[in-house]
Design goal:
single chain; alpha/beta; 2 domains; seven-stranded mixed β-sheet; two-stranded antiparallel sheet
Amino acid sequence: MELSFWRVTVWLSLAIWIYLFAFRGGFWRLRERLGKQRAEVNDKEPLIAIVIPARDEALYIAETVTSLRSQRGTFRLDITVADDESSDETASLAARAGANRVIPVRPRPPQWKGKLWALREALEAVPSEAEFILFIDADIACDSTDVVQQLLNKGNEGYDLVTVMVHLRCQSFAEKMLVPAFVYFFFKLYPPSWVACKPGVAAAAGGCMLIRRDTLEKLGGIESYRSALIDDCALAGRVKSVGGRIWLGMSNGELRSTRGYDSAGVIRSMIARSAFAQLRHSLLFLVGTLAGMGVIYLAPLSFLFTRDPAIAFLALGAWLLGAIMFAPAVATFRAPVWTIFGLPLIALFYLAATVESAWNYWRGRGGVWKGRVQDML
């Protein structure tokens, strides 16, 4: 009976990996990328209002604004930085770097999340003729002068929301071990091809989101999801609810995050900030996630050295299939090739961070970001 149970478990693991490989939108291939299509020639260049929420971002804000100010294409740019009660020189550095305006964010009302309130405050100041709004984080830099044009080109293909998973920094040992998996797991949850064509699948990468202004107004503005901790996916859900189309993909490295995560502890805290909110604060979903991840990632590794050759063979197949699927993410971030075989252990790290996220929520410390507790009972 016991042997039969383990065989069923490893068969289930292999079956899930085959499903993920062949039937989940090819998420692991990471093929959805911004391209350098030729810009359309328009008599009137649209105004793109860039909105940057910033709280204590003196290390990054100048490079972000400068790189955006250098963008060229068939558009006009207006840059607004929302200084969210910074205690450093964020505001003055943003102004010197070329922001059209830097507005102080007023005290946040109840039920509003900090970043969303900052965005809402900034939107009050952007020019009324702006046709597109580009929400971009304060630690995102453009390494070429046509990034905004690439985003606009996607918008001109009929998408109401164009959102990009920027190239995360991958330099420290911790980043090389854990950052590729972050992108891999995100796209596994939200396959970009499904986001583009399936009505019930909506997601966005909050670091860079270009949205049509009329779409934002149609869905009720920032107010319509003001209490969402995972604000990017909440916005995507609202866009789909009003019939909008979403393009989700990656940059080719020219749109990158300048923020570093030099230790596993910092990355763990980043994951723990929102993981339990992703599970809707449900103990049932948490238990299901632990069980599911255990079957998918840990079972193959656990059964590799069993004395039963049939179980060991199936476990090896599941483990190698997972390594093959993880390889494009590892290659994208130029992490060591051997890390493709470490996905089960990396998944264990993410599981531990998810449990920590639940624990933080239950003790009233959920969603902590720069001193703010944003997710609690």
